[in-house]
Amino acid sequence: MMRKTAVFLLCMVILVFSAACGSTRGKNRDNTAENGSQTEIDSAAREKDGTLGAQISNPFSDCDTIEEACRQVGFDITIPDKAAGYSEKKIQTASKEDMKMIQVFYMFSGEEKILIRKAVSSTDISGDFTDYEEEDVVSAGGRDVTLKGNDGTKFLAVWTDKDYSYSVHVSDGMESDSMMGLIELIN
Question: Which N-terminal stretch is annotated as signal sequence (predicted)?
């Protein structure tokens, strides 16, 4: 009798495991179909660089002139008309309730080399979160300016003046004196 019970229990255990394995196979088949669809969705959402992510709309719009940009955001900015060695200038604004900003790129051969920003803000608006080796606070044009860089070359300057924050980012870097001269032309 005990032997019959043991055989019966063994058969039941095998039956339960068989059913579980069978249902897993069915789920895998269903998941494969779902994954196939998901792969198509993932491929459609994949970025140019191969990464997957949600797309955020660009808050900036292009402007033809500084005057047009100033009208859009409701404040003025003074910048150099031209920067030595830079052939093009691109002007943009962000004009939403929580963000009013003008940014100007000075470009060389189509590459953005110098970025000047001004916004209604009291925080760092540079968007540059690089850990630079050097950080100095200097006086330029009567303002305290934080210069950041490496090995004596400055890549970033940030400061505030009244209700506005400013930043200058130079992709190839500049000597301190050149950066200070540029900052003094910005208001």
Answer: 1-19
175/114 Cα distance (integer angstroms):
14
Q: Domain range spanning residue 90? A: 60-184
* Number of domains composing the chain: 2
Give the per-residue SS3 of the chain. Answer: CHHHHHHHHHHHHHHHHHHHHHHHHHHHHHHHHHHHHHHHHHHHHECCCCCECCCCCCCEEEECCHHHHHHHHCCCCCCCCCCCCCCEEEEEEEEECCEEEEEEEEEECCEEEEEEEEEECCCCCCCCCCCCCEEEEEEECCEEEEEEEECCEEEEEEEEECCEEEEEEEEEEECHHHHHHHHHCCC
Q: Which two tokens stand for residue 123?
A: 């925080």
Which one, of 165, 168, 171, 162, lies nearest residue 182 by Cα? 168
pLDDT digits (tens, 9 = 90+) for 37-92: 344 444 444 555 555 567 777 889 999 999 999 999 999 999 998 777 777 899 99
Give the residue from 21, 40, 55 where a domain finishes: 55
CA gyration radius, the chain: 30
